[in-house]
Task: structure prediction
Amino acid sequence: MKQPRLKLAINIAVIICSLLVISQKSAVHYKTSMFENLMIDSFAPMQRSIFYFKGKINSFFRHYALNINASKKNLLLGNKIKKLENKIFKYEELARENNRLKELLKFGEEIKRDRVLAQIVSWDASSDFIVLRVNKGSKDGINLFSPVVTAKGLVGHVTRITKHFSEVYSILNPGNKVDAIVQRTRSHGIVNGSPRAKGKCIMRYVTRTEPVILNDLVLTSGLGNIYPKGLKIGTISKIEKESFGTIQDIEITPSVKFGRLEEIIILSSKNIQNSQKEWDELELFDGKK
Amino acid sequence: MKLKLNQIIPSFVMTILILVVLEILVTTIMPILGIENYKLPFNILIILYIGFKLETPIVALLVLGIQICYSFFSIEGWALGTFAGVIVCMIISYLRDMLHFNSKFFTIVVTQIFQICWFIIVSILIYLKVENFDYILGKLGRFLPESLIISIMAPFFFSLLDRIWKINDREMLGEEV
Result:
């Protein structure tokens, strides 16, 4: 009988104690005792160490065991990177082209002609950039003999034309004669492509007495009814004076780097069309003769 | 089984150690596995074992000890569980003659029934305290799967605790071993 009473007493004491604590304690917030703090502080590192091992195991699975498809993914990503690099390259090219075009459009604002921007589509394979083909034709308002320029200077003139394409006769062609003047001395001469030096022009018929020097700038004179006045042709790079004769031969390095030419401006005008009609009339007249 | 105090203390310390290890594992491994809202209540299982198998006047103190250890891992504290545990143990003590753990199925069923008792007692106390039925409903949602798992584990867990407490079921049934 002693034990059941003791048991009952302990049970009642524990129940009362529990009820007291339950009634006083807030559901969540309550101050922990020193003993509780000690026990929690002792068990927490054990829990943390399990999380540490979990991290290590996870890392193992994530970085090694579950990386079966890593090489495949790597290949896919490699391909993706290549595609993106190509795209970036295209964008960079577009940005460069954009800059070039902007520069071109700024050029020749003072020239009272329609400016048609064109892109070179081919070079004449048989010569050193003597004839270029561009992607603009009569549909775009281009006429025969329209001068072709870049921001750097004169390229040539349109010599053949279709609806969508034009051929440009460059100043490197020995047959393309441009009336020119030396900017500093105002000395007149005729510039055409050099048959000897590739990529150079020759200025002829400059009298011996003209005091031209190296690096003098040569411009179009405006005579000849094709090229407007004041277009840059190039700079004098060589002067040949014979001990006899009345003229000197001058070699000109064109301002335009023909090797790097991508876009050009065609200076189109109705006057050019009229002059073409005059040519046609003359040819007709010659034929009748 | 009637036990003397010198038999109780080492087994009780061992049981506490098992509880601590299990709580550490439960509070870390279950969240690691993505089960963050559930926590297997091994304290209930141990208290039910004490209630089922130990005949000692200090059952309530053992329950209190278990619950204090449990409170280090739970914000719930020790008082609610102690109250419920002592009441459940008192109920078990009146029904002890009817309870036998000679089959796993019976152990599972009995464990589940007394877990439900535990839940009802705790829910009543919580309702009296917070006067919010939603909280109890939420707790019920967690209790059902948790208690089922605990009940399924009970036969194996009880056999482990039998070894710690050196209790033989046949002895409990009155057979001479």
